[in-house]
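Course assignment 3, question 2. Fill in each field.
Student: A.L.
Task: Predict the tertiary structure for the chain below.
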Amino acid sequence: MTEELKIYIEEVLTTFEREKKFLKENDWTTDKEYKSKRAFYDLHYTLVSKHLNSADKIYKMSGNDLSEPEVKKAIVKLVATFDLFDKNVDSYLKKNDWTYDVDEIDKVGHEVSFQSSISKNRSELKLIRSAIPTSEDKQKVYIPTLDNTLVPFPMKRIIENKFPDIAVAYQDKMNAPQKGRKAKK
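Answer field:
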């Protein structure tokens, strides 16, 4: 692992635990007053956005060091705050249906604006999140080739070095028990 990457991970994780604790202990979805709910939501969004951008930077900086335990651990920790945020947004949108209470147009206007904002922000963060693979993700790796042909066998090592997830997935598949066969030891 490069020294630059090691230092960056240390800097990012220095404040991470405090920020994660804040996110868990201050649930903006339960606040009834619009201004304080909005203020807490904005803090959550800012912190989660910061964490995802840091995870993305670590992922891009890591290159061949992506399989290093320190790198994996940092990315998984940082991405986990998005999962909490996503769950909170989902919960909030499900339990706050503004269409039933249209008597006070100001409240409805604020709620519609707020829900639009949180939906838009969540979509932006999901795009960033989807570009950051973690060890928990089971994903397909698409390797563009000329005319969508298969990768020739002699290139196996080159492809596995460039895309380590392929080698791991292949090894997992080869070690998995199949019907009528025992798992390899």
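Instructor remarks: The chain is about 65% helix and 0% strand. The chain has two domains: 3-130, 138-185.
Grade: pending
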